[in-house]
Automatic annotation (TrEMBL):
Location in or out of the cell: Membrane
SUPFAM superfamilies: Periplasmic binding protein-like II (SSF53850)
Protein name (Swiss-Prot/TrEMBL): G-protein coupled receptors family 3 profile domain-containing protein
A Pfam family that the UniProt record links to this protein: 7tm_3
Primary subcellular site in the record, as a coarse category: membrane
Listed transmembrane segments: 369-395, 415-440, 452-473, 485-504, 524-546, 577-596, 616-635, 641-662
GO cellular component term, pick one: membrane
InterPro entries: Bact_solute-bd_prot1, GPCR_3_C, SBP
Organism from which the protein derives: Allomyces macrogynus (strain ATCC 38327)
Annotated family: Belongs to the bacterial solute-binding protein 1 family.
Keywords: Membrane, Signal, Transmembrane, Transmembrane helix, Transport
Domain of life from the UniProt record: Eukaryota
GO MF term list: G protein-coupled receptor activity
Length: 853
C-alpha cells in the first residue's frame, strides 16, 4: 500500500514548524498542542483504520487532524466538520481552486490545504546537451526521439543506462502516473468531479488506449527498463541519482533534496511532457490538508488554527523547509519560495486531481482497479484496449454508475425486424390458406382423416405462436410482456394438445375398435382437451397473477442494455418456465409415443406416422432449445428475436406439413374415408367380367375397386360381425401386400377393413351376398344423425366373440412390428356381407365377377 510520510524524523522541520506555531500561539493566546506520529511511514490501510476508529469513538479530545488530501472525502460524513461558514471565505478563496476539488464533497468543503506536491520531469541536462538538445521535451514524441538518439550513443560505454524511470509498480504511484498521462492527452482519468464516467465512449477509450500503449511500447523497445514495472519512489530516485537514467518522473519536492544534498550529476527539472506541447505540465496533485473534528468543543479556535496553518506564512515554511509546493498563488513569486521553485515552473503546472472526492470511501478500490489494470498492460499481460474498457466497467459497477446508455431495443424499421415481420406474415398467410382450404373441403371424405375441430385447434395454436415473435420488436411494455406469455403458452398448448388428441383418437379406435364408437371417442377427447387447456390457463393465470413478466433492464456483456421481460423473482420465473416446458414436453412426448404406437399397427400407416413423429420431434428439439437459450442466455434483443422467430417458424411449418398437408393430400378426383395410410386409386370394376368366377382372393391381385377410392385402416378385432343387407352401395377392394378387403357403405355408415383373409365364398344369387373369413380388422362408422349412431352402437353390441377359432401366430407381420405377445393373438372371424349394388344379382353365373383380374 502507499506509504503515508510522517515528519517525525525530520528534526529541522519539526523545530521550524513548532517555532512557527508557538509564535502564532503567543500572538493569539490560543494554545496548540501538536502530536507527531511515532512511525516514519504508515500504509493507507493503517491510516484508514486509524481514521475509522476516530470516527467511531466520536471523541472531542482532539480538534484538528492533518491527512493526505485523498482522505477527506472518505471521512467527511463520520469524522469531519464542513468548513463552509466556519472559515472566512477569503481564507478559502486564496487557494488554487484545483487544490480544493479533492476535499469538496457535494459542494461542502471539509479541509483546507497545508501544502501540495506534483509530478515533474527530472532530466540529465548534460546528456541532452551532448546530443544537441538544449531544451527538455514538451511532448512524449519529442522525448522518444531524444531517448532513441541518446541511448544509441551512450549504451556503447554505459550499457546499464536506461531511458525513463517512473513508478510503474501496481500501487498508488502508478495511479498518479496514469492521471498525468491522460491529462497530457486532454483526458480525465475515468471519473470527473460529478462521478460521471469520462472514458465511456469508444473514441475516448481508443485515445486512452493509445496513451497507455505508448509506454508498453517503450518497455518493449528498451526505452523503459522492465525493472520499472516493480519500481516505486525509492527505486526510482535511486536509479536516477546513480546516473542510470536519462529522464525520471518524480514528485517535485525531490528537487529540494537533490539541491540540498548536492547530487553529483548535471540535472534539471521541467514540467512533464504531453501528447501535444500545449498539454504539457500535467501534475497529479499530492499533499496534505487539515480538517476539524466534528465532535470538537473548540470549533471556533480550531478554525483559527486551520486558517493559520493553511495560510501563506505556514506554506512558505513547508516550501523552504521541505520543498513542498504552495497552493496560494501569491506565493508563486515569493522570493523565499522562488529560491526553491522557479515562478514559471509553479505557474506552468496543470494540477490533476485523482478521483477521490467523486468516489468517497471507495477511492482505494477504484485506484486499485486503475493501477492493477495498467500494470498488466505495461507488462504485456493484457490487451490495452480491453483493459481500459474493463477498468471503466469495473469502476462503474463498483460505484453503481449507469454506464450502459439508452436501451438498444430493436425498432420496427430495423432490417432484422422487417425480416421477422415478413416471416410472420408468411406464416399467417399459410395458416389462413390452409384454414380456407379446410373450410371449402370440410364435407369431403379426405377431411375426415382428422376431425375438423382438431385441425382448427392446430391452426389456432399455430396462429397464436406465429404472432409471438412480434412481441420481441420494440421496447416491451407490461402488456406486451404478458401477451408474450399468453401467445407462446396457449399457442403451443393448443397446437400440441390438438396434435395429441388426433393421435389419441386413433389410439382409442385401434385399441378396441368394436367396443368404442364415435360418441365415446368424441367425449373422451374433449374431456382430455379441456383438462389440458384448464391446466395451461391455471399456469398462465398463476404466473400473471403472482409475479408477471414485466419490463426489466437487461445488461449485455456489461457494456450495453436493452429492455426485456422478466419476473421480479428469478426463482419463481424459473419454476414457471419449467412448468410451461413440462406441459409442452408431456404433450409432445405423448404425440411421439402415440404416433409410433399407431404406426406399428401396420406398415400402411408408416408414411403418415413418420410425418407425425418428425413433427413432434421438431417441436421438442427446436422449441426446447429456443426456450433454454431465450431464458438462460443474455444474447441481446436481435438474436433473441431471430431465435424465437426461427423456432416458431420451424415448429409451425412442421406441424402444418404433418397434420394438414400430408394428412389432407388426396387425388383431385377421389375421396378417402380413412384417417391414416395410403389412398388407393381405382383399378377395375368389380363386375367387369360377366362370365368369370370368383376364384381365390389370396391370389396376387393388383386391386379392384367400385365406386370410389378407399383408404386403408388397421387395427385388431376379437368379435364376429354379421350384418344385414344395406341399402347403399358397397365397394370392395383387395390389396396384395397386406391382403386387405375394404367394404364401404355410401355415403355414410360403415367402413370395414379386414386383414389377412382366410377365405371368400362365391356370391349368392338368392341373398346377393358373400362370406369372408378374416383374422383381424377395424371398424369405424360415422352418421349424420344421433339415431343412426345409436342403431350402429346396438348392432355392434350384439356381436359375439368367436373364441374357438382363435389362433396365435409367433411369426409374421405382428412379430416384425414388435407388438406384445398378447396382441399377436389372431381371431378367425366369419362375416357374411350383403352386397347390393346398383342392380340386384339375378343370375350369379352371368354376373359373377372374375377376381383374378
Amino acid at each position: 500500500m502507499q506509504p503515508v510520510v510522517s515528519h517525525r524524523d525530520n528534526a529541522a522541520f519539526i523545530s521550524n514548524f513548532t517555532t512557527l506555531v508557538n509564535a502564532w500561539s503567543d500572538r493569539t493566546g490560543i494554545p496548540v498542542n501538536i502530536w507527531w506520529p511515532e512511525r516514519v511511514a504508515y500504509t493507507n490501510n493503517d491510516l484508514q483504520k486509524f481514521l475509522t476508529i476516530l470516527g467511531q469513538q466520536q471523541l472531542p479530545s482532539w480538534d484538528l487532524i492533518g491527512m493526505d488530501l485523498i482522505w477527506p472525502p472518505a471521512f467527511a460524513r463520520p469524522l469531519l466538520l464542513p468548513l463552509n461558514g466556519v472559515l472566512p471565505p477569503a481564507s478559502i478563496a486564496r487557494h488554487v481552486p484545483s487544490s480544493l476539488e479533492s476535499v469538496t464533497v457535494n459542494g461542502s468543503l471539509y479541509a483546507v490545504p497545508l501544502y501540495s506536491d506534483g509530478g515533474a520531469l527530472f532530466y540529465r541536462s548534460d546528456l541532452l546537451a551532448k546530443y544537441g538538445y538544449f531544451q527538455p521535451p514538451k511532448t512524449w514524441d519529442h522525448m522518444e526521439a531524444m531517448l532513441t538518439t541518446i541511448l544509441a550513443g551512450e549504451r556503447a560505454t554505459n550499457p546499464t543506462l536506461t531511458g525513463f524511470v517512473t513508478q510503474l509498480s501496481p500501487y498508488e504511484g502508478l495511479t498518479c502516473n496514469v492521471a498525468e498521462w491522460l491529462a497530457g492527452a486532454n483526458l480525465t482519468m475515468f471519473l470527473d468531479m460529478s462521478s460521471k464516467l469520462t472514458l465511456d465512449s469508444a473514441p475516448m477509450q481508443a485515445q486512452a488506449t493509445a496513451v497507455v500503449a505508448r509506454f508498453r511500447r517503450w518497455i518493449q523497445q528498451g526505452l523503459i527498463s522492465p525493472v520499472s514495472l516493480f519500481a516505486r519512489e525509492l527505486e526510482t530516485r535511486n536509479t536516477f541519482g546513480e546516473g542510470k537514467a536519462v529522464f525520471m518522473r518524480y514528485w517535485s519536492r525531490q528537487e529540494f533534496f537533490y539541491r540540498s544534498t548536492g547530487l553529483n550529476l548535471t540535472w534539471d527539472i521541467a514540467p512533464l511532457p504531453g501528447e501535444l506541447s500545449d498539454l504539457a505540465g500535467a501534475a497529479t496533485l499530492g499533499g496534505a490538508v487539515i480538517g476539524i473534528n466534528k465532535f470538537s468543543r473548540n470549533v471556533t479556535r480550531a478554525a483559527l488554527v486551520a486558517e493559520f496553518l493553511s495560510g501563506p506564512e505556514s506554506q512558505r515554511v513547508f516550501t523552504t523547509a521541505l520543498g513542498l509546493r504552495p497552493t496560494i498563488p501569491e506565493l508563486f513569486q515569493d522570493p523565499a519560495v522562488n529560491r526553491v521553485y522557479d515562478a514559471a515552473f509553479l505557474q506552468s503546472a496543470r494540477i490533476v486531481n485523482r478521483p477521490a472526492s467523486s468516489t468517497r470511501d471507495q477511492y482505494l478500490a477504484i485506484s486499485q482497479f486503475i493501477y492493477t489494470g495498467v500494470n498488466l498492460i505495461l507488462g504485456g499481460f493484457a490487451d490495452a484496449a480491453a483493459s481500459i474498457a474493463s477498468i471503466n466497467l469495473l469502476i462503474a459497477d463498483w460505484l453503481g454508475i449507469d454506464h450502459f446508455g439508452a436501451p438498444r431495443n430493436t425498432q420496427w424499421s430495423d432490417s432484422a425486424s422487417i425480416v421477422v415481420v415478413a416471416i410472420v406474415a408468411f406464416l399467417v398467410a399459410a395458416i389462413l390458406f390452409l384454414a380456407i382450404r379446410l373450410f371449402c373441403h370440410r364435407d369431403t371424405a379426405a377431411a375426415r382423416r382428422i376431425p375438423t375441430e382438431f385441425l382448427v385447434g392446430v391452426l389456432v395454436g399455430s396462429l397464436l405462436g406465429s404472432a409471438a415473435p412480434l412481441t420481441f420488436i420494440g421496447t416491451p411494455t407490461l402488456q406486451i410482456c404478458e401477451v408474450r406469455v399468453v401467445l407462446i403458452g396457449f399457442g403451443f398448448t393448443f397446437m400440441a394438445s390438438c396434435m395429441a388428441a388426433q393421435d389419441f383418437r386413433i389410439y382409442l379406435i385401434v385399441s378396441s375398435p368394436l367396443r368404442r364408437v364415435a360418441a365415446d371417442v368424441h367425449r373422451i377427447l374433449w374431456q382430455s382437451l379441456v383438462a389440458v387447456w384448464v391446466v395451461e390457463g391455471a399456469l398462465i393465470g398463476l404466473w400473471l397473477g403472482v409475479d408477471p413478466l414485466a419490463p426489466v433492464d437487461v445488461k449485455v456483456d456489461n457494456a450495453w442494455r436493452y429492455i426485456g421481460c422478466g419476473s421480479d423473482g428469478l426463482a419463481f420465473q424459473t419454476v414457471m418456465y419449467a412448468a410451461q416446458c413440462l406441459m409442452c414436453s408431456i404433450l409432445v412426448g405423448l404425440c411421439v409415443w402415440l404416433a409410433v404406437r399407431n404406426r406399428n399397427v401396420s406398415p400402411k400407416a408408416k408414411t403418415s406416422g413418420e410425418a407425425l413423429s418428425k413433427a413432434a420431434y421438431l417441436i421438442f428439439v427446436v422449441a426446447g432449445a429456443a426456450v433454454i437459450l431465450l431464458s438462460a442466455l443474455q444474447i441481446g434483443p436481435v438474436p433473441q428475436m431471430l431465435l424465437a422467430t426461427a423456432a416458431v417458424t420451424l415448429v409451425v411449418l412442421s406441424v402444418l406439413w404433418a397434420y394438414l398437408v400430408v394428412q389432407q393430400r388426396v387425388a383431385p378426383d377421389a375421396e378417402s374415408s380413412g384417417w391414416m395410410g395410403t389412398t388407393m386409386s381405382p383399378s377395375a370394376a368389380i363386375f367387369s367380367d360377366a362370365s368369370g368366377s370368383t376364384g381365390n382372393l389370396l391370389e396376387p391381385l393388383v386391386g379392384v375397386v367400385h365406386e370410389s377410392t378407399l383408404a386403408v385402416r388397421f387395427a385388431r378385432s376379437e368379435r364376429a360381425l354379421q350384418l344385414a343387407p344395406w341399402d347403399a352401395g358397397v365397394a370392395v377392394v383387395h390389396v396384395v401386400d397386406a391382403r386387405i378387403l375394404v367394404v364401404r357403405s355410401q355415403p355414410h355408415g360403415l367402413v370395414l377393413s379386414l386383414r389377412k383373409l382366410v377365405a371368400v365364398t362365391e356370391p349368392s344369387a338368392a341373398t346377393s351376398s358373400f362370406t369372408v373369413t378374416f383374422t383381424a380388422g377395424v371398424l369405424e362408422m360415422w352418421t349424420r344423425t344421433e339415431p343412426e349412431l345409436k342403431e350402429w352402437h346396438t348392432r355392434l353390441a350384439q356381436t359375439v366373440p368367436v373364441g374357438d377359432q382363435s389362433t396365435v401366430h409367433e411369426s409374421g407381420g405382428c412379430r416384425a412390428q414388435g407388438l406384445p405377445v398378447a396382441l399377436r393373438a389372431e381371431m378367425a372371424v366369419s362375416v357374411q356381407i350383403a352386397t347390393r349394388i346398383a342392380a340386384p344379382l339375378s343370375t350369379v353365373g352371368a354376373q359373377a365377377p372374375s377376381l383374378h383380374g
